[in-house]
Design goal:
By secondary structure, this protein is of the alpha/beta class. It is about 40% helix and about 20% strand. It folds into two domains: about 260 residues, Aldehyde Dehydrogenase, Chain A, domain 1 (3-Layer(aba) Sandwich); about 180 residues, Aldehyde Dehydrogenase, Chain A, domain 2 (3-Layer(aba) Sandwich). The termini are far apart. The structure holds NADPH dihydro-nicotinamide-adenine-dinucleotide phosphate.
């Protein structure tokens, strides 16, 4: 592996510019290393390599594509400890969570796509043979909060579908992407099928989004950048898949197990220091249990230890960068609600934010409407199920959510939420289920069969 190179056409190659990007450890503020700052010219080279590889990869029998992904999975699994450590360093995820979630989840997803790659891609409808074919060259632009999962959710699905890929990981967390590409190289993935161009969003990201020969852009990140990517792709009518922000509600109904709902809800909101698009950042509680829930949430949050991600007892690492910490502190300082725990700045080195809970949050306020992306929970009371649904749906986002209560009643409320996924009474995350957003949370779905189909065109052949 060569972190001063790009990976294009199955080889580690020199970047066109000598400029580099420093990667920082957000827990210590020390520089971990450097990666090249790619250019539009590098993107051109990578897109050309992806194009050259496309016909061969698209024509590779599906079982063979699946076998390639199986080998990639094996090579990546052998790097599990390194993945967790790298993400612990560049993002600050506590090691235990980095192993279980940041490394474990993408491995599960990749294994799933190795199997799904061999799934039949045609059906007969009347006199038509309906076939699904790969879209073409995919540009994948990913963020820093789940830096391997977000890459694998795109790359594995696109490759399984028969597409080739040019990947630009976040400039804040590019190191783990090198581990993936290193694994792909070792696994013998055909040249040009997966290409890596690290760099900044305004340069490499924009060049991918606007490139005439990129057939589809798959983006995860903020709604503002997703909008820019969408505009850039619109000129040539390229397909876009967008996984954007969220402001999800955890609805605790009158007949819920309140203790469990609050405990799981706080854990969900604070996972990865709150830097999770699907985080349940609004806790809606029936008035009968409201003060109890506020107290439970405050004491749960107060028990979250922040600190060194490599210390066993740490539950919350730092935020990814000084800019992100300052952005989150801004929301806390502007908040107009009852502060029940946290709120104060953390004086130690590193970009830490104390776990913070606000109660009596106005559903229309900035706290309840904006994606904060830090360990900040808003608790909001409601009067009945209809009122809860109205507050939950009062958001320009619609990514995820939770509902707790008698199962039939909770399911009925879940059906009324305008979001791409809902967990009823703590239903477990399913890596084969479609994941994506309503409204400004995005377009399209990732994971499982739905995520694979996203990277395919449909053709009808009448005979
Ligand atoms: P961005 O949306 O800016 O970053 C996501 C990716 O897009 C990065 O790879 C970034 O590059 C790239 N990018 C930036 N500008 C462009 C562009 N013009 N064209 C193409 N690609 C571009 O997120 P931020 O890191 O700025 O985070 C800001 C906020 O966004 C967070 O606080 C959070 O609210 C939200 N967010 C949501 C995520 C989610 O999963 N829903 C993930 C990340 C952020 P670069 O490497 O230079 O950053």
């Amino acid at each position: 592996m060569n972190r001063d190179s790009l990976y294009i056409g199955g080889r580690w190659v020199a970047p066109s510019s000598t400029e580099t990007i420093a990667v920082e450890n957000p827990a210590t503020e020390e520089i971990l290393g450097h990666v090249p700052a790619g250019t539009a010219e590098d993107v051109d080279r990578a897109v050309a390599a992806a194009h050259a590889a496309f016909d061969g990869w698209a024509a590779t029998p599906m079982a063979e594509r699946g076998a390639h992904l199986g080998k990639l999975h094996e090579a990546l699994a052998a790097r599990t400890a390194d993945i967790a450590r790298t993400i612990g360093l560049e993002l600050g995820t506590p090691l235990k969570i980095a192993k279980a979630v940041q490394a474990g989840l993408p491995l599960t997803v990749l294994r799933g796509y190795a199997d799904l790659a061999a799934r039949p891609a045609e059906e007969t409808i009347g006199n038509s043979l309906v076939v699904r074919e790969p879209v073409g060259v995919v540009g994948a632009i990913t963020p820093w909060n789940y830096p391997l999962h977000q890459v694998v959710a795109k790359v594995a699905a696109a490759l399984a579908a028969g597409c080739t890929v040019v990947l630009k990981p976040s400039e804040l967390t590019p190191l783990v992407a090198y581990l993936l590409v290193d694994a792909a190289d070792e696994a013998g993935l055909p040249a040009g099928v997966l290409n890596l161009v690290p760099g900044t969003g305004p340069v490499v990201g924009a060049a991918i989004a606007g490139h005439a020969r990129v057939d589809m852009v798959s983006f995860t990140g903020s709604t503002a950048t997703g909008r820019a990517v969408s505009h850039a792709a619109a000129d040539r009518i390229a397909r876009v898949a967008l996984e954007l922000g969220g402001k999800s509600a955890n609805v605790i109904l009158e007949d819920a197990d309140v203790t469990k709902a609050v405990k799981v809800g706080v854990a969900n909101a604070f996972l990865n220091s709150g830097q999770t698009c699907a985080a349940w950042t609004r806790m809606l509680v029936h008035r009968r249990h409201y003060e109890t829930a506020v107290e439970l949430a405050a004491s749960a949050a107060a028990g979250y230890r922040t600190g060194d991600p490599f210390d066993e007892g740490t539950r919350l690492g730092p935020l990814v960068s000084a800019a992100q910490r300052d952005r989150v502190r801004g929301f806390i300082e502007r908040a107009d609600a009852r502060l029940v725990v946290g709120g104060a700045p953390v004086p130690e080195k590193g970009y830490f934010v104390a776990p913070t809970v606000f109660a009596d949050v106005d559903p229309d306020s900035e706290l309840a409407q904006e994606e904060i992306f830090g360990p900040v929970l808003s608790v909001i009371p409601f009067d009945d199920d209809d009122h809860a649904v109205r507050i939950a749906n009062n958001s320009r986002y619609g990514l995820a959510g939770g509902v707790w209560g008698e199962p039939g009643r909770a399911l009925a409320v879940a059906r009324r939420l305008r979001t791409g996924s809902v967990d009823v009474n703590g239903g477990a995350f399913n890596p084969l289920a479609p994941f994506g957003g309503y409204k400004q949370s995005g377009i399209g779905r990732e994971l499982g069969v739905h995520g694979l189909i996203e990277f395919q065109q449909t053709k009808a052949i009448q005979q």
